[in-house]
């Protein structure tokens, strides 16, 4: 009985201390990765030139042997969520593709 009460108290304390995650919409250039014609990955970029630069680096490192992935830079919208990294820094990561 004591262990059940302790678990309940800990879980209630955790629920009180959780903060709703911060989210925001990003509208701009996005680097898309398609595998077998389906969108698998997407990352926001600062602009067209940055997106194309990263795409070129990926294409060079992939080589001609790896034909499965297709990379594309285009504008769109993403839902981003803020995550804590370590004790002091934060990072915004994409969680959903909202289309154009």
Q: Nutshell version of this structure?
A:
By secondary structure, the protein is of the alpha+beta class. It has helices spanning 2-17, 48-62, and strands at residues 23-35, 38-44, 69-85, 89-99.
Give structural notes:
By secondary structure, this protein is α+β, with helices and mostly antiparallel strands. The protein has one domain. It contains two helices and four strands; from the N terminus they run αββαββ. The protein has a four-stranded antiparallel beta sheet, with helices on one face. The chain is globular and about 40 Å long. The N terminus is likely disordered.
Distance between the termini: 54 Å
Largest sheet: 4 strands, antiparallel
Which structural class should the secondary elements be placed in? alpha+beta
Strand elements, count: 4
Number of helices: 2
What is the gyration radius calculated from CA atoms? Answer: 20 Å
User: Mean of the pLDDT scores?
Assistant: 81
* Structural domain count: 1
Strand order of the largest sheet: 2-1-3-4
Overall shape: it is globular
- Binned strand content: over 45%
| Helix/strand order | HEEHEE
User: Approximately how much helix is present in the residues?
Assistant: 25-40%
Spans with pLDDT under 50 lasting ≥5 residues? 1-19
């Amino acid at each position: 009985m004591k262990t059940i009460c302790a678990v309940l108290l800990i879980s209630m304390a955790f629920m009180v201390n959780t903060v709703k995650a911060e989210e925001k919409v990003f509208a701009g250039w996005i680097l898309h990765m398609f595998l077998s014609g389906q969108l698998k990955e997407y990352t926001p970029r600062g602009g067209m030139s940055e997106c194309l630069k990263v795409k070129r680096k990926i294409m060079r490192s992939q080589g001609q042997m790896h034909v499965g992935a297709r990379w594309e830079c285009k504008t769109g919208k993403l839902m981003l969520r803020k995550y804590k990294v370590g004790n002091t820094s934060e990072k915004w990561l994409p969680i959903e593709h909202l289309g154009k």
